[in-house]
Every structure is written in structure tokens, then in C-alpha cells.
Amino acid sequence: MTTTNQPEIRHTWVYKMTTHDGILELRAIDPTGKMYPVVKQYRGKEYQTKELMLLAFEKDALALNAKGYNVYTTLNPIKSDFRGKTADDADIDFRDLLFIDIDRTGTPKQPANESELKAAWDVADQVESYFLTCGEECIARVMSGNGYHLYYILTDVKNDEASTAAIKELLGALASKFDNEQIKIDTGVYNASRITKVCGCVARKGTATPERPYRMAVLC
Asked: How many whole angstroms separate alpha carbon 4 and alpha carbon 65?
């Protein structure tokens, strides 16, 4: 699947929560390094409605993805008074999502094959089952193109050193419990300004082949 998709991008808002007075940030990165990165902010106060803001983001995201960019958005809410070019950790207002990234081991130069995706799916099932025993339900599972992302709601979590340390420790504990020879949980996605995939956009990593195609990020 190698074309952008307007209906699928709507699924981004299942896990990426925003308000009309909030700020959305789009980051487009060329995996080949031939095109300059693109960073854009969408400020709710500049649009008559939240829907118009989301539509503007979606239009640009799909257009940039069609040009060959991989497209991301910031995971957590950006402070309303932010005026910089790219949101950093200090620019995040608070944390509202726990992000678990399940992918292949190593640093592959090609997209995942179906067997590797199936192995990542199985680990995602194990992680979800574990959280359910703790009374926590996953709000979204996304096939990221080469693995799976799990998203959990965080409530009243400040953006501070304590929360960063706690999330880092949690990801490390999950990796120790669920990593195997083929699949790993990324322990480096704990920072507050972490970016994540936008649904409906093709993820391009390395060189695609019939057995290892580029895939669109989709809500499962």
C-alpha cells in the first residue's frame, strides 16, 4: 500500500487529542535526506473551528507524504504560548499519552516483511494483555508501517523530570519483560516532545521490495 489516504488520516485523532485553542505540529522528514525537513504549526485560534484546523493539517500531511516525506506529529500537547519553530521538551504543556513502540530488533535497511509484522503483533497482544491485568485499556493500536504503536491515556501527568523518569523506567521494564530475539520495545521514546506517525501516510524506511513493501500507517 503506497498511496496516501484521506479517510485513514482521520484515525489520527483517535489517539492524538487536541482542542480548538491548542496547537498541532506537523513534522515532515525526507528519509533520503535530499529534501529539507518541513515543520508547520496549526494554531486553533487561527481557525474558526477545530474541524477546519484538522482539515488544514490533514491536507498538508497528505501532500507532503505524497512528495516522499515521512509525516509525524508531536505526541503531547504544546503550550498555547509556544512561538518557536519546533517544539522541544520544555514546550510541552503536560503529558496525555503513553506511547509504546514495538518494532524489529537491530537497524534494518528495508521495511518489515509479513513474518516480522506478525511477530510484532504478537508482542503487542502480550503488552495489551499485561496492561489489562493492571486495569488499563489501550485506546489505539496503530500499524506503523514496520511494527505497532500502542497508546494509553495519561491523566493529570505533568511534564517534569519525575514523569520523564517514570515513563523511561516503565518502558525499560516492558522491554525487559517482552523483548525477544526478533522484536523489541523502543525504550527511547520517553521524552515529552516525542513525535509519532500520522495515520493515512506511507512510512518509507530503506529500500522497498515486493516482500518488504512500504506500508501506510493505519489504525488496527
From this structure: 7
Tens of pLDDT, residue by residue over 160-215, are: 999 999 999 999 999 999 999 999 999 999 999 999 999 999 999 899 999 999 99
pTM of the shown model: 0.94
Grid-cell match 500499524, residue found: 143
Domains assigned to the chain = 6-219 (3.30.70.1790)
174-208 in b/e form (b: 16+ CB < 10 A) is beeebeeeebbbbbebbbbbbbbbbbbbbbbbeee
Residue 41 in grid coordinates? 504549526
Q: Which residue has the cell 520517553?
A: 190
Sign of the dihedral through C-alpha 86, 92, 97, 103 = positive
Q: How many CB atoms lie within 10 A of CB 34?
A: 7
C-alpha cell at 206: 530503506
